[in-house]
């Protein structure tokens, strides 16, 4: 019934429909709270003595240190603790973990307490993961591996869907002050493809199939992030004093 006709026949306006705006606001606040709680859960540092922290499997052998030659390492060779990450540059979860890895280098690697080793584990569903790993290693030929490593994760959303990743990565190389022709030649000749494949085989040998997979010595983290990683590092450092 039209409003004018309703007023004429009943003398009252049509009832207003209840606004759904408060409902949507409430749902939005609940989602925001869940995200905040999830981030806190991943980043909050448990006590190094917590029983909730992961431990090495029963009768686990030490990590085969000879395999580190297939990754890229930073930190002293005699550091008491070694953290190893197996990751895919195009993996969003790896992009989020990169902040924790950067903090690890700032707080533990630079202090000589930890050596950090990054292994390439490009996943088949990520078309640009291998070119990205190649870009980091080609930058490494000009002493800029970690600078490119960080740039790739920081700009992940820019290049992950690119149809010409080499052009994008070459631009990053130029931004880092690298020799463009040398970098591009490294990329287009697949100079480090065998190195990346060797790194991937290490992951297969260890039966690591998801990214990021992070180990503190021979302990596989169950929630890769700053909170759990730093707590396990502190526990391992204390045990070796």
Automatic annotation (TrEMBL):
UniProt entry tagged with the keyword Cell cycle: no
The keyword Glycoprotein is annotated on this UniProt entry: no
Transmembrane segments: 21-42
Gene3D superfamilies documented for this protein: Glutaredoxin
Pfam families per record: Thioredoxin_4
Domain Thioredoxin: 44-192
Keywords: Disulfide bond, Membrane, Oxidoreductase, Redox-active center, Signal, Transmembrane, Transmembrane helix
Recorded family membership: Belongs to the thioredoxin family. DsbA subfamily.
PANTHER family: DISULFIDE BOND FORMATION PROTEIN D (PTHR13887:SF14), GLUTATHIONE S-TRANSFERASE KAPPA (PTHR13887)
Protein name listed in UniProt: Thioredoxin domain-containing protein
Species whose genome carries this gene: Marinobacter salinisoli
Organism lineage string: Bacteria, Pseudomonadati, Pseudomonadota, Gammaproteobacteria, Pseudomonadales
